[in-house]
Amino acid sequence: MNFGEEHIAIKAENITKVFGDFTAVDHISFEVKKGEIFGFLGANGAGKTTAMRIFCGLSVPTSGSATVAGFDVYKETENIKKSIGYMSQKFSLYENLTVKENLEFFGGIYGIKRKELKVKSLELIQKLGLENEKNKLVSELPLGWKQKLAFSVAIFHHPEIVFLDEPTGGVDPVTRRQFWNMIYEAADRGITIFVTTHYMDEAEYCDRVSIMVDGKIATLDTPANLKKKFETDTMDDVFYQLARGAKRSE
Prior knowledge:
Layout: E1 8-19, E2 22-33, E3 37-42, H1 48-55, E4 63-68, E5 71-72, H2 77-83, E6 84-87, H3 99-109, H4 114-128, H5 143-154, E7 161-165, H6 173-188, E8 192-196, H7 200-203, E9 208-213, E10 216-221, H8 223-229, H9 235-249
Parallel strand pairs: 3-8, 3-9, 6-7, 7-8
Antiparallel strand pairs: 1-2, 1-4, 4-5, 9-10
């Protein structure tokens, strides 16, 4: 699918990453549209984390080409880092700092001016309902609140793209749904969402889904089209059929 260069947030063409004799990412090609919620799925060892590191400017590919927010993954990694947000399953927060201190710290890293940072921090604390917890250590917060705070921090500087690596691991279904509402809200504001998850029901929330198997993109389409193609009602079964097919071909 070609969106036109001005509408593309991420573009990869035959991206490959080799470690010795092992090919972790094997000639993957795709485009992500600006403002899209793009699911990047795969079993452990499928290559998705290695690929995400490339798109975050943390690793250089062995071959192929790619741009993230218009910047080249070989030559402009620092510009990429300034244009993105990132949240991992561990939530990327400092547990030994308070809520307020985390906002001030990350706001400073993102280059938000002190006066603006004070206003934005107050607004965010009020939005999250953390007025009474702003001076508490993050380690004292419930898991669901940590998750919402971490996501808010990742998009604090309104990046063009935010990368979410297994962001809902370990939280209950209600909190997961609330978190996805935050993702929708960010996408509505024009932020591109690039998310990995092992919860196949969450794939249903994405505009499009890519599924990696053994370093390659095995399929890429909307959840509705994938279910139609694989003649099933669930993304779980789509994933299962792809994984089973890969094992049979070994």
